[in-house]
Batch of 4 targets.
Target 1
Amino acid sequence: MWSDVLGFLETARFDDLLLPGWIDRTGPFPVHRLLGFDAYLKAEGGLVRFTSVNNHGGLHIRLAGEIEYDEALRDDPDEDLVAASVGSHYLAASGPVRCTAMRLFTNNEAVPEAGIFRAAELAFDNGSVVFFDPFWIDGIRIGTTAAADLWLAEHHAPPLQAAFGLLQETTWRPNLR
């Protein structure tokens, strides 16, 4: 439920951003290959999952207890499933950080009460900003500081508005305790 996500964001302290993938051992050295359609913000008490849905036009935000992989991948003994830890690149923190605000973007395909948005930007108490855009050929594109504003300017273009409707923006702020 969306209210559970908001409740979690109010109290969680995030220490990592995880990108699910697999180890490709076909070349001269092993390489982590992203699956690309999911990203997870990790806190001590759980995960917030960001998933590309609706043909990559929607971003589903929900809680998860673990990194989730398709059953076919989990059951394949040849797959070496791992998650890349990129929190130090995006959260730029030496310790856990709290979410201080979230900008949520909606269009005519969004279903906010189900946690489905067009895109989202989260700000943290150390000044870090992480932007999630699911409308990308290889899955979720993740950006930092000015990414949301650059994306917003691009998505105000008439062809995109005609196809997906007008973008609306709301800002959520937690009751920090």
Note: The two ends are 22 Å apart (CA to CA).
Target 2
Amino acid sequence: MARKRRGGIVLGALGGVLVLGGAAILAGVAFAPEQVERTYGAVKTSIDKTVDEVQEQVFEELPTVTIGVEGGLAELDRCDGTFTIMRSYEREGVPETGAAHNNCGGDVLLAWDEGQKIRIAGRDEVYEVVDIRYTSKIWSSTDDLVGLGGDIALQSCFYGEDRMKFVGLAPVEES
């Protein structure tokens, strides 16, 4: 009988902790949504970076992205897990640029630093991050991208911040 009572107390306490934790998360989302989104993004980016490192070191697999269709916001908003080649970024001195929303697979690039090697699905080359640019999501233009290194660029936004990250990629020899 005492054993049953202890089990009930433990389960009751665990239930109370879960309810309080859920209430704290809801309060955070209601009163500080950008901070919650930023924290979520930081944790997810850190996990993605660790997964990429393990895949590369243990399984000898590089992160792989897929380039989708060419278009604009409508194509980007399809959120199909591909990087949309953005017509609005076309300009002399700016490499062809694919964009993906952070919550649609684009956040994979948020953890990348210069030297990161990746694959692009359907292409034989291995690419390396050779240049990185950070811009505001508001009040920035393609002027901010002129001179970005690489043959192709990828872009995504940070979670809960007014910032975008562009990575310039160039093909490299496989090692």
Note: The chain has a mean pLDDT of 83.
Target 3
Amino acid sequence: MTNPPNLSKYTNLVGHDKTVLGVKYVDEELLDPDGEPLSPGVLHGRLDIPSPGARFAFQGPVPDDDESVGMVVVTDQYLKSHKPMEMIPASLEEEVPLPPAVVKQMERKYGMTAGRSVMVCTVGKRYTYGIIQFEGEYTGPDYTHDPYTKKALALEVVTDGDKVYSYPVIGWLYDDGPTWNADDDGEYVSSNIAAAFEGPQGPELCFARWAPESATMGLLHISDGELVRETYAHYISLIDEDEPMWKTDIAEMKRQYVAEDPGENKHVELTKWTYVYIDDDGPQIWISDEQEENGAFFTREDGVLHLITTVRAGLKPSFHQDARGNYLMLQGHSGGPSYYYEVFKLSGNRVVEKYVEIDVYAEIESCYLNGEEISAKQGEAYMEALPEAEERYLDWQSIN
């Protein structure tokens, strides 16, 4: 990782519209909120899961237009010899092919037929960037025969007037089609040009390649008449991650659990937790002792934990969900012939309704909806209208 003295030299944030904003190095984020080292080479789709790296702050007013905020930080020295260039997308709605003359030239060069081409953007009103994907098996230079896997070919392409520069990217060709990245559905993914500069040797295009499960950062430039693609960093890009659970979250849930009934709950050792999806705006969290007899359910909104209810010995939770609603129910014997029900309806990750019923000898003794007593007939109708209980897979995580 670059050391801080060098990082302090990076004071210019450049965007695709060639806007330059002043920034300053603040620090390096290397630890997660629990104080554990962050995993290098990993990016997260969630902003509440940090990735390791340097942090910068704006020098001067913070722009309120996201379009003017760039992705590439450079030094003053770099800007002295490199002029930022504006990039204009070829289209924001559909793929625009490269000019036929460009495609034909590349077909002749590589001896293959193009199945797809995309003009991604124009740069500085002079250059264009795009990609070409060829059909069939590639057997040209850098080809290594593999009896089990054939090769596919795509190109990164930069044009300068009549000049066409290409960088070949070899993929794999299977019976169901080609692939270059996991889950690319047989289509080569173009790079996102984050910033572009006119340098002493020609254009320098800073790119970020966002494939379905990876991200690659680097530079496209022309050297000795050839397009070169330099990779600066390659990351695993994680998707569909649950909200993180930090030690401070565990401590807060334990605090609220004990505060609900200090006399009893302070003696309970909570040892594990799991996400449960009572409603689709969740997940909600169940924290429990080892036997799953005592614990609590929580919602979390904007990082704030809210107690739904505590689980007491003898009361078993169940989950009910269909088009009528999303429910958490606790039920069990409460002494002698008494049986107890506690039902919470959730919507938007919040409790919107609470029903309580006490039965004695299987007859409703009393029932309440949102704190107001209702008739036994109304209570019976409420319980009959609940969806059937669903089995849930629970991925328990140890607190320790």
Note: The first strand starts at residue 10 and ends at 14.
Target 4
Amino acid sequence: MPIIKIVAFLFLFLYVIPIMTVLCCMFPVFRHACFAGMLYFTSNEYSLNFVPMPKWRGTARGYAFTAVSLFAVPLLLSMFFSIRYKIKLFPPGSFFYFLYYLAILLSGINAIHMHQWGFEVYKMFWMYVTFLATFNYLNNCKNLTFFVYLVCCILIILFVVGFYQKYRMGIFQIHSTFAHQNSLALYLELFGLLCLGVLMNEQISRILFCLCLFAFGGSVLLIVFTYSRGGLVVYFGGIAIVCALSILFNGFSTRRLTLLLIGLLVLLSIVGYALPHIILRFTKAPAASKNTRIVLAVASKRMANDYRLGFGANNYSEYSSGRYPYVGNFYAEHVQYGGIVETIYLLVAAECGWWGLGMLILWFLYYYLSDIISMFVLRKKPCSGIVIGLFSGMTCIYWHSSLEWSLKQCNNFAEQMVVYALVGVIAVNRKNIKNAYKRNQARIEQQRIKLQQGRQSALQQSRGNSR
């Protein structure tokens, strides 16, 4: 089996990727197709996994080459070899990503399981490739409409799959194309709220408006039918943030008020339909789940205090087992590997030390603050809805990550890198967007004045003829 995988890997890198790169260089439409494929597979993980450890309890279980990377590599290479494209190897925020990456690398000093540590290091390399491909593609295209279309289509596909799982397969907590409903919830928090921001603020075509409306509505239904307690609270909080910021930055309008009223009625109907199950999820939650979260959270603090550089990325389950004193008697001594703490922040603190957690937070905050600046600069201008949606989405995933570690999973991690690339592209071009909007408004005003002058001259001429 390993020989087959090696042959497949060589075939991909020696034949498939070079051919895809050549096609992208010769025919620009293939470059758009690669971007579409890369973006779609952030929601549906297909991978060629080397040294797989499916039973390992960690954030990475092998050296996985995913379908996202398969499309990202030729996309990036085709732009690198083209004279029409300007490539930035260190887009905005790269410095903070490398600081976090350094924390991951240094944590290997204390790692017991080096293979498992290597899984995480390897994964982060490919995530940066995804970030580079997305940033350079969007920065050179200068058009986010195609991106929004793709996001809508992905959400609609997720909804169709989830609808099938709910009403044809009878699955109680749907997970759509994801491995777990919490991963689906985190994914929807970014792209679903982006669609809502576009709906409420951007000047878009009727087709795109309908697609965004259906995609956002589908995301709300999916969140409800995941019955994820954290997802429900966080997503509805994110919707409130988008609505409040849309009115605060761009004022009242007929479209916003109409969407608010219709959305409120639909939301109440959906929640009313699913309310009995939602109440059960909150009131009948097993006590063991709560106890496990508390025990592992306390243990993580002790781990982080004992290891300044952390005990190794992707090594948490080793130290949470009964063989170590951190969890007390929670796990029996014969249990080989323990659970993983249900928050990415304490997980990183334990595996990479408190300074590693600081680097993670700095990385998160860079894009958060960059998007806030974009919201003020682009107020009542194009992309205002996009940055409001991104701000709400990032708020949600940062909030939700205090309850889940799903951002370390390949799908959610890749989506996060795509969103960060989008934030960086808007930050780099926000002055150009602002100036282009002013020029367009000035041109519209000139046309209005000319039209008014033409009407006045025509009126005067008609009066002269009548005399």
Note: The longest strand covers residues 47-50.
